[in-house]
Backbone:
């Protein structure tokens, strides 16, 4: 079992750290939120006053932070972790960030003989809680092999996408597709309901037909159709519209850099941006359903 430091205990990181404890690892946690730390300490984790103190003597450091600026601050900023970690420490960043930021941190880590891997995840908060996340890794094959037993404590499908940054590229492709699928699913449900169909019946029909997709299978955007989905709790928790917008922004930047046409992704980005500008940034991204249909009360 490993000595692991986990930094960033939000919607995803909290349950991921919890699963590492259940897998028998010794886990020290750090977050800017005292409440988040307290929850994990209640489950058996140790805590520390700073990220540097938390990572002192860790075999492995895992970060699950909102965006690239937080990842850069934690590893490269004043008192950044790369200045103090022992050589050969395994560093896994599971945040979704720009591939170039992942490569920048990886290069700085390599200079210090620290092993870095980008390992963003897919599967949502449900997958984080159930320990069934998909990890999409970028880095050396040896680092991937070293990380795999630890990642298996939090996930079911562990992929090696390629060198540093490749995990992030695969992840932003996936999330651009997810935004398109969630918008399309919401649009189809709204059209059916405006024609008098029951959203649960229509969902079941589409699930078993050629329009079937992940949103219909596990994350239905219509309130009340799927009890465990964020739609059934006023779109609280889950994957925030603001974070989806961040990922769509990463996809758009990458498309420009690589001369890739992404008309569907660009439309989805505009939809989610408009939705956020109407005060929905802190709701789960499946709340895009409200853009298409506002139930009469
Ligand atoms: P979140 O906002 O719920 O959690 C982020 C946590 O990081 C918060 O607890 C915050 O206090 C902490 N934090 C921020 N700066 C910090 C710092 N300097 N030091 C320590 N802690 C710090 O976000 P989340 O939903 O858990 O997402 C985390 C990452 O995972 C994001 O990059 C997101 O895009 C990605 N992701 C999220 C989901 C999802 O369904 N929520 C799914 C896949 C990937």
Residues:
């Amino acid at each position: 079992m490993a000595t692991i430091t986990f930094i960033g205990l939000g919607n995803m990181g909290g349950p991921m750290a919890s699963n590492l404890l259940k897998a028998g690892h010794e886990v020290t946690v750090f977050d800017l939120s005292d409440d988040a730390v307290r929850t994990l300490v209640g489950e058996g984790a140790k805590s520390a006053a700073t990220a540097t103190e938390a990572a002192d003597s860790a075999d492995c450091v895992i970060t699950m932070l909102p965006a690239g600026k937080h990842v850069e601050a934690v590893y490269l900023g004043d008192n950044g972790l790369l200045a103090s970690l022992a050589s050969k420490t395994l560093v896994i960043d599971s945040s979704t960030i720009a591939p170039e930021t992942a490569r920048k941190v990886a290069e700085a880590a390599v200079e210090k003989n620290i092993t870095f891997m980008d390992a963003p995840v897919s599967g949502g908060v449900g997958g984080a809680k159930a320990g069934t996340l998909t990890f999409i890794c970028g880095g050396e094959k040896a680092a991937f092999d070293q990380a795999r037993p630890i990642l298996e404590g939090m996930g079911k499908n562990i992929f090696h996408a390629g060198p540093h940054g490749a995990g992030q590229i695969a992840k932003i492709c996936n999330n651009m597709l997810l935004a398109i699928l969630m918008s399309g699913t919401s649009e189809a449900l709204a059209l059916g309901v405006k024609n008098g169909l029951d959203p649960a019946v229509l969902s079941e029909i589409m699930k078993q037909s050629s329009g079937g997709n992940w949103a219909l299978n596990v994350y239905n955007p219509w309130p009340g159709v799927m009890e465990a989905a964020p739609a059934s709790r006023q779109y609280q928790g889950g994957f925030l519209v603001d974070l989806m917008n961040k990922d769509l922004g990463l996809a758009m930047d990458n498309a420009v850099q690589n001369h890739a046409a992404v008309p569907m992704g660009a439309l989805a980005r505009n939809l989610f941006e408009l939705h956020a500008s109407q005060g929905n940034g802190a709701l789960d991204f499946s709340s895009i359903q409200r853009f298409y249909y506002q139930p009469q009360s």
